[in-house]
Write a structure and sequence with these properties.
This protein has 3 domains: 3-289, Acetylglutamate kinase-like (Carbamate kinase), CATH 3.40.1160.10; 297-394 and 404-508, Aldehyde Dehydrogenase, Chain A, domain 1; 522-654, Aldehyde Dehydrogenase, Chain A, domain 2, CATH 3.40.309.10. The chain is built from 25 helices and 24 strands. Helix 20 links the parallel strand 15 (522-526) and strand 16 (553-559). The two termini are 55 Å apart. The relative contact order is 0.08.
């Protein structure tokens, strides 16, 4: 649950307002039956869970306009149609549409075994204290009977008094006798009058943006702070159909929030946003009377952490090569000195994960097995002994006489790494950040909370005072991530290490460049020319050395000829003898003698002792299968035919492609990188295991002696490559 949404635990009575742009389709203005059905299903679920839901619905005018246009067309002569068409009367449209809208709600709720009731109100009704009392009593009786009250402004029965509330009037002093001017303000008014615990305003966009949602520069505002945002926001067009729009929603939301009722503006086009709001997920834009107290502090905290990491990284870069090397050696020694303490905390995480019923594969990734700390310390020492990566001259060019240009390596800046389960990743990433001179923010999985905390403490404790322990920040809650992902002016690269869902969510939530991989669907193809003893060794190692790893084999492809010569049977037998569960593609599952059940999909990452097996006609079919169903991570061919192997190596479009070697070799330490921040399947500056080089960028240094351009007059460009002297 998002920290800013904890209040939903105490919510019982909810007012949901759905706008015209949500209940109607954008192409022709007809009713959006799918969205209305999803809305009613969510209300049904809340009703079953004991919530009291009051629905305020727009859409009557739009629904009526469609029907009246049709009637007018049917009743018009050809001559009538040639004349200019007058705009249909809004009150007439409302009168026709209200009946159809409520009939639709009644039909949808009836299908869900719910009863709905219609209540039409006018702004003048709320001037009468007796009416307000009767309205509250009626709604309470309906809710006690599990009936869904559906309220709407009676457009057909009144002339709307468009009284605008003065901008400088304190909305906290307004009471329910005020005038409402649309269904947004009606919803806010009803929420106050009926003592609701939450108001949800459903729009056709995801929430309140800093500018028009269509503008790429606009950012979604997760928590509205009046003092900050009311002068920063630029509103776009109002609703395409209703009288309201985002301006009206914000005005209504501010009014309700100041009076003590939290409001969330969210998209009504998503099929489950109401349920997400009730579960406390960070959906839409929140308006809350206390937002200014905690939301601004949270955003400031995230920014301060990132800014501190950048300042410390600049101090780190200013150190000499030997000083940076000593920091790494101190970290390695500190890890070894605290091995028992680290093991104690890791054991506690493992016990908690097992008690919570986590999958075996996750528990395996969580464990720091015997010898792991020593192995990590050794990798850090390898990093320390590497050639200095910062400030290396990569290219040197004489541009003109006495004018020399150098292309040099430099750190990216500040990295945000989000990883799941594996606490060892924290050590690898931190050591790489130190070696490459980058600031670092880390967010590990909650299941490794104690392991990550002690590792972070040990590592930052080894950092010298002239650099500062804030070089490496540890993010402790998931709720901090959305605020960090907004900081594209401070954070330079995000590297997610985890599930496909995690990577996809981060890519969709930030403008910061993202480097990483979603799935690790690795293949081994055994060609007909393969040495079968070698093939069995490679296949078993690729699957069983560490089944939970992202570079473990998930699909085995076998040449069709191996079915005839017994090679396929040998591979199947050996895998089963090691306890591997096999699932087959269409061709292999059809072979009754092998008794391999059919897989549901080829795009499957098991992370357990299980894999998919399929028969292919030749190497070209294997290549096509891998490029179609793989994740561009690591793929291998076992073959003695060099032409076949070369075709595989050239045409498989993956970050790492191997010949006669286990996929488990795809690892930063095994590649000699010292460690890795992750394996990238992206096609940006780094691909495959990402070590120090992947965390560097370049800058240009130009050395002259007073030269000026002056329109290039008198400048003779030589562009001559110069030798780089170490």
């Amino acid at each position: 649950m998002d920290a800013s949404r904890v209040f939903v635990r105490d919510v019982k009575r909810v007012v949901v307002k759905v706008g015209t742009a949500v209940v109607t389709r954008s192409d022709d203005g007809r009713m959006a039956l799918g969205r209305l059905g999803a809305l009613c299903e969510q209300i049904k679920e809340l009703n079953l869970d004991g919530y009291e839901v009051i629905l305020v619905s727009s859409g009557a005018v739009s629904a009526g306009r469609q029907r009246l246009r049709f009637r007018k067309l049917v009743n018009s002569s050809f001559a009538d149609l040639q004349k200019p068409q007058a705009e249909l009367d809004g009150k007439a449209c409302a009168a026709v549409g209200q009946n159809g809208l409520m009939a639709l709600y009644d039909a949808l709720f009836s299908q869900l075994d719910l009863t709905s009731a219609q209540l039409l109100v006018t702004d003048n009704d709320f001037r009468d204290p007796n009416f307000r009392s009767q309205l509250s009593e009626t709604v309470n009786q309906l809710l006690d009977s599990k009936v869904i009250p559906v309220l709407n402004e009676n457009d057909a029965g009144c002339i709307i008094n468009k009284v605008k509330v003065s901008r400088d009037q304190d909305s906290s002093k307004q009471d329910s006798s005020g005038i409402f001017w649309d269904n947004d303000s009606l919803a806010a008014l009803l929420a106050l009058e009926l003592k609701a615990d939450l108001l949800i305003l459903l729009s056709d966009v995801d929430g309140l943006y800093s500018g028009p949602p269509s503008d790429p520069q606009s950012k979604l505002i997760h928590t509205y702070i009046k003092e900050k945002h009311q002068t920063e926001i630029t509103f776009g067009d109002k609703s395409r159909l209703g009288r309201g729009g985002m301006t009206a929603k914000v005005k209504a939301a501010v009014h309700a929030a100041v009076a003590g009722i939290p409001v969330i503006i969210a998209s009504g086009k998503a099929t489950d946003n109401i349920l997400k709001v009730i579960k406390g997920q960070c959906v839409g834009t929140l308006f809350h009377k206390d937002a200014h107290l905690w939301a601004s502090a949270k955003e400031t905290g995230a920014r301060e952490m990132a800014v501190s990491a950048r300042e410390c990284s600049r101090r780190l870069q200013a150190l000499s090569t030997n000083e940076r090397k000593m920091i790494l050696l101190d970290i390695a020694e500190a890890l070894e000195d605290n091995e028992e303490l680290i093991k104690t905390e890791n054991d506690a995480d493992i016990a908690a994960a097992q008690q919570a019923g986590y999958d075996r594969s996750l528990v395996d990734r969580l464990a720091l097995k015997p010898g792991k700390i020593s192995s990590l310390a050794k990798s850090i020492r390898v990093l320390a002994d590497m050639e200095e990566p910062i400030g290396q001259i990569l290219k040197k060019t004489e541009i003109a006489d006495g004018l020399v240009l150098e292309k040099t390596s430099c750190p990216l800046g500040v990295l945000l790494i989000v990883f799941e389960s594996r606490p060892e990743a924290l050590v690898q990433i931190a050591s790489l950040a130190v070696r490459s001179g980058n600031g670092l923010l880390l967010k590990g999985g909650k299941e490794a909370k104690r392991s990550n905390a002690i590792l972070h403490k040990v590592i930052t404790g080894a950092l010298p005072g002239n650099v500062g322990e804030k070089l490496i920040g540890l993010v402790t809650t998931r709720e901090e991530i959305p605020d960090l992902l907004k900081l594209d002016d401070v954070i330079d690269l995000v590297i997610p290490r985890g599930s496909n869902k995690l990577v996809s969510q981060i890519k969709e939530s930030t403008k910061i460049p993202v480097l990483g991989h979603a799935d690790g669907i690795c293949h081994v193809y055994v060609d007909k020319s393969a040495n079968m003893d070698m093939a069995k060794r490679v296949v078993l190692d690729a699957k069983m050395d560490y089944p939970a790893a992202c570079n473990a084999m998930e699909t085995l492809l076998v040449h069709k000829d191996l079915l005839q010569n017994g090679g396929l049977n040998e591979l199947v037998r050996d895998l089963r003898s090691e306890g591997v569960d096999l699932f087959g593609g269409p061709r292999i599952s059809a072979l009754q003698e092998l008794n391999i059940p059919a897989t549901q999909t080829f795009h499957k990452e098991y992370n357990t002792p299980a894999c998919t097996v399929e028969i292919v006609d030749n190497v070209h079919a294997a290549i096509e299968h891998i490029n179609q169903h793989g994740s561009a991570h690591t793929d291998c061919i076992v073959a003695e035919d060099q032409k076949v192997a070369e075709a595989f190596l050239q045409k498989v479009d993956s970050a790492a492609v191997f010949h006669n070697a286990s996929t488990r070799f795809c690892d930063g330490a095994r590649f000699g990188l010292g460690a890795e921040v992750g394996i990238s399947t992206s096609r940006i500056h780094a691909r495959g295991p990402v070590g120090v080089e992947g965390l560097l960028t370049t800058r240009w240094i130009l050395k002259g002696s007073g030269q000026i351009v002056d329109g290039d007059k008198g400048v003779v460009y030589t562009h001559k490559d110069l030798p780089i002297v170490s």
